[in-house]
Design goal:
single chain, alpha+beta, Jelly Rolls, seven-stranded antiparallel beta sheet, six-stranded antiparallel beta sheet, 5 helices
């Protein structure tokens, strides 16, 4: 099959999928009225005072629910790193929809969550789940780290600008990785330039969990160079990973001894640009993005 024909076939498939999604949204939206959304808002009101995330089970329902329920705009509901740390969460679905492919993927190596409560809200269903998982102590993506490039400090407080990285950049962003929104530190450096991010220690943490992925959509269609991620503390290397764009939102886990010493993340990609039909080009960047959280297996 020629490239031109392949592009037309792909465009046709995507167009058909979009049409089916739009038709479903229109068909089901007509069954939902203001009383459904009012009931959902009332049921979710107590959750607003907690950090418990609320997810939407149906893809077509997601944008409609977000426009009617402000609680769904919280970052833990829009772009969770995973379900690690979510000891209690809520899923809003239409009719009998109680779960989703996205939630199943975010379980990673966790067990099956328990449905502890179900509430019918007109044509909507709100299910509350509990999950056996470590307790999250700290989300490093909410910090302002000390950032260096090739050992020299970068300017700013987010975004960070790094002259040593040949005008590199590090900033916290909400990006699309593997077709999902994620909140992470986007690292955009020149070829082979290593970025270092230093975070304050978390005294009670005995597990560090994170993820790495690439924000370049087209990178998933090629085989570009991987990112090398190193985790250090107290002058010792705790772990080292090599992650490719084909791995999507790749989880990283390392057990640690509790310590207040700073946590240091080093990340480097061999090529900042892209391999196109005519060869390698640096005209379009290919940033790597990572997040990191601290957990404990102790306590409630």
């Amino acid at each position: 099959m020629s490239p031109t024909i392949a592009r037309w076939v792909l465009a046709g498939v995507l167009g058909l999928a979009a049409a089916e999604w739009a038709a479903s949204a229109v068909a089901y939206r007509d069954q939902l009225d203001d009383s459904d959304w009012a009931a959902a808002a009332e049921a979710l009101a107590p959750v607003g005072a907690t950090a418990e995330p609320v997810f939407v089970a149906d893809r077509w329902l997601d944008p409609l629910a977000r426009s009617n329920l402000p609680i769904l705009s919280r970052i833990e509901s829009i772009a969770p790193a995973s379900l690690h740390g979510a000891r209690r969460f809520h899923v809003l679905g239409f009719g009998g929809s109680l779960w989703s492919e996205e939630l199943q993927a975010d379980l990673e190596n966790l067990g099956v969550p328990r449905a502890v409560q179900q509430r019918r809200l007109g044509d909507l269903m709100l299910t509350t789940y509990e999950l056996d998982t470590d307790r999250m102590l700290h989300d490093f993506t909410r910090d302002t780290p000390r950032v260096l490039a090739e050992g020299a400090p970068c300017g700013g407080r987010g975004p960070f600008r790094c002259k040593q990285g040949r005008f590199g950049r590090v900033e916290t962003k909400l990006v699309e990785i593997d077709y999902r929104p994620r909140s992470c530190f986007e690292v955009d450096m020149a070829d082979g330039v290593e970025a270092t991010l230093e975070f304050p220690g978390v005294a009670q943490a005995d597990v560090l969990r994170g993820h790495v992925g690439f924000t370049d959509y087209n990178g998933r269609l090629r085989s570009d160079a991987p990112a090398v991620v190193t985790l250090e503390r107290s002058g010792q290397r705790l772990a080292r990973w090599v992650v490719t764009d084909e791995q999507g939102w790749q989880p990283l886990t390392v057990e640690v001894t509790p310590s207040e010493d700073p946590v240091i993340v080093r990340i480097r990609t061999a090529t900042q640009g892209r391999w196109e039909r005519d060869g390698y080009t640096t005209a379009k960047s290919r940033p790597a993005c990572f997040e990191l959280q601290a957990f404990t297996r102790e306590g409630p």
